[in-house]
């Protein structure tokens, strides 16, 4: 099962991903200070106000970071699937 961390405030995304069979965990941007928290996930979805929430580049962590701003929950799901199959 794909594990996705979703930033607080993206309830529609959380609900959609859960319905699609993802294991979803909500997080608050300012409450997670340890970057190793994100290593337990296959992808991270952020609001757009917290770009690069992990403090370093995706390519170094190999964890896709999806910026939800302007996207539907379905588009986010497709991006996660696309990035995880590469």
From TrEMBL:
Pfam family name, one: UPF0180
Superkingdom, taxonomy of origin: Bacteria
Protein name (Swiss-Prot/TrEMBL): YkuS family protein
């Amino acid at each position: 099962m794909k594990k996705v961390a979703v930033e607080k405030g993206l309830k529609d995304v959380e609900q959609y991903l859960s319905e699609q069979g993802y294991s979803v965990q909500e997080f608050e941007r300012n409450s997670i200070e340890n970057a190793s928290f994100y290593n337990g996930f296959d992808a991270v979805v952020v609001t757009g106000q917290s770009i690069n929430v992990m403090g370093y580049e995706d390519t170094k962590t190999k964890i896709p970071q999806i910026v939800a701003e302007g996207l539907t929950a379905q588009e986010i799901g497709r991006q996660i699937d696309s990035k995880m199959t590469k």
